[in-house]
């Protein structure tokens, strides 16, 4: 077992807005929906990927390995 995390986007939100979030709310970001996302393995960026769907489940398709100095 390993820990894997995929980061959709970074954005700023006020604490007030955060506390008022409800199911179904949308958080807007500047990142295009079809852009690559960072995928971390055990806390280190290892891959780039794209969000998608597989067999009715949300999924991340790995598109390529990333260098240690690459930013998303």
* Helix run count: 1
Element order: H for helix, E for strand: EHEEE
Quote the beta fraction.
35-45%
- Based on secondary structure, the structural category is mainly beta
| Relative helix content | under 10%
The biggest sheet, with number of strands, parallel, antiparallel or mixed sense and barrel status, is: 4 strands, antiparallel
Overview of the molecule:
By secondary structure, this protein is mainly β. Helix content is 7%, strand content 40%. The chain has one helix spanning 15-19; strands at residues 4-7, 37-41, 44-54, 57-65. It has a four-stranded antiparallel beta sheet, with no helix packed on it. The longest helix has 5 residues, at 15-19. The relative contact order is 0.24.
In short:
By secondary structure, the chain is mostly beta strands.
Name the descriptors:
72 residues, mainly beta, four-stranded antiparallel beta sheet, 1 helix, globular
Produce the secondary structure layout.
Blueprint: E1 4-7, H1 15-19, E2 37-41, E3 44-54, E4 57-65
Antiparallel strand pairs: 1-2, 2-3, 3-4
């Amino acid at each position: 077992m390993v820990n894997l995390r995929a980061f959709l986007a970074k954005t700023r939100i006020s604490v007030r807005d955060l506390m008022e979030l409800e199911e179904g709310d949308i958080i807007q970001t500047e990142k295009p929906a079809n852009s690559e996302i960072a995928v971390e393995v055990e806390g280190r960026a290892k891959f780039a990927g794209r969000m998608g769907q597989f067999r009715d489940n949300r999924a991340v398709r790995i598109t390529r390995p990333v260098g240690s100095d690459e930013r998303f």
